[in-house]
Amino acid sequence: MMPRSGYTLMELALVLAVLVIVAALTFPLIEPMLSENNVTAARDMVRARWADARGRALEEGRPYRFAVTENTGKFRIAPDDDMYWSGSNTAVTGGDDKPLILEGELPEGVLFTTSASAFQGGAAPGPGAEWGLAVAVFLPRGSARDDAQIFFGKAGQRVLGLQLRGLTGAVTDIEDAKESGGGQP
Prior knowledge:
This protein is of the alpha+beta class. The chain contains 2 helices and 8 strands, in the order αββββββββα.
């Protein structure tokens, strides 16, 4: 009898079935880790956008506003002038004399909120008015108009946040948002 030089279709199907079962069992364990990484990525993204807005305010000599649509992942950066906040949905513009107008969105499923307790019920809160929450206004001298806090989260997941000190423009992480009390000062 000659030795076999390959595998039968039944053997390949059996191996594939075992791999599918193993993947189905491990996905529920991996998904929460990926969700938490999305919340951390959202916080890092906003920290970078705040640095962009602060830098533009210093460079151009005019205040820049960072606003969000609360309970969604949408944010907008533009000069703090009603002309730029009257409903225009302009994308990023560049050049030496043009202001920065940036609209963006957090990673899928991650929402902005002003309270760390907004996600404690397990369901995501309903969206607010478009650009209805001006989180921070960065002034030309490198500081911000007011102190501010913003939180990021997904329903049923850990909530993280950022805190802005108005006087210095310094940004710090809020690691355990559920214990911080939440709210905007």
